[in-house]
Amino acid sequence: MLRxxxxxxxxxxxxxxxxxxxxxxxxxxxxxxxxxxxxxxxxVYGLAADGLxxxxxxxxxxxxxxxxxxxxxxxxxxxxxxxxxxxxxxxKARLLADAFWPGPLTLVLPKKAHxxxxxxxxxxxxxxRVPNHPLTLSLLKQLDFPLAAPSANPFGYVxxxxxxxxxxxxxxxxxxxxxGGPCTLGIESTIIGFENDEPVLLRKGSLKKSDIEKITGxxxxxxxxxxxxxAPGQLAAHYSPKRKIVIAEPENIGLLQTLPRPVTxxxxxxxxxxxxxxxxxxxxxxxxxxxxxxxxxxxxxxxEADQGPESLIVTGYLPAGEMAEVINDxxxxxAFPFKNTSHE
Length: 344
Ligand code: AMP
Ligand code: MG
Fold this sequence. Notes:
This protein has 344 residues and is an alpha/beta fold. It has two domains: 202 residues, DHBP synthase (Alpha-Beta Complex), CATH 3.90.870.10; 92 residues, Rossmann fold. It has ten helices and 15 strands. The strands form two sheets. It has an eleven-stranded mixed sheet, with helices on both faces. Strands 12-15-13-14 form a four-stranded parallel sheet, covered by helices on one side. 46% of the residues are buried. The N terminus and C terminus are likely disordered. The chain binds adenosine monophosphate and magnesium ion. Magnesium ion (MG) binds next to loops.
């Protein structure tokens, strides 16, 4: 598994860095020609290609250094387009689509034969989503094919929430970056699969489980922690910066003396207030202690913590709240295998 856990930040080709802009026509032309375009969504930026063109889809895996067992999500402009890619649509999938599309919900449904297996990593099911971003929705409306798009980062590294993040990591591997501003939600979509027509939570994400349950009733969870193709976003190590992350308890301030300097503190509200003037740099996910803001700033601040003078990142689990659980899940994977309070 660790074989793939290599964050590629240095350019490895001679290709010129991609241009960034808001030219939808240009993005559409490139995508029709089988090229790669980074697209904004409300969750994170995606690295998109024609989802029915096998070669184009393969080039996404290559650009990201993504293992072939990790399936992609197909993005479309509306529910008819989405369901035309599914062999069968359970009643509760329709209800969820009506309630939450466009939005941060991915539905995993049995795929139609024309959806290439390269998109689904050989699975008979396909992940489908209607993203809620005006630029990307108008781009999708100009295309007569779905866009396969995983997050636009090297596999295993921190997800991108601005066009600049994409440029920093994949600028030389993508043909154009559609700049839709910073992502408004900042954490990936929630993924729902189906078993005997009943919804199952495969990955926690921006859409709250409690909101889904208002439509479906109690949700079964099948979240994998071991790197299973059913939900590879759940790999033990994922979303990781290059620097070591220590997850600390705010009470355990004595830990600071044992850590190598400099130390960057990634905090939330006043969680680590007593630590703030004893570390070298403080980054706050939300000074007001707002979880939606923390979701929005999370990946960007992890990237910031990963830059500047070589530093150890100290952070802690966010306190109670549904989004806290979702962010803590990412935090734990970002810290792997350094989640023990010892930096070794
Ligand atoms: P990313 O957009 O980088 O978060 O990656 C897409 C994620 O969607 C994958 O890592 C899987 O967790 C999930 N996914 C996509 N297609 C399927 C599928 N057919 N079955 C289960 N999970 C899927
Ligand atoms: Mg990803």
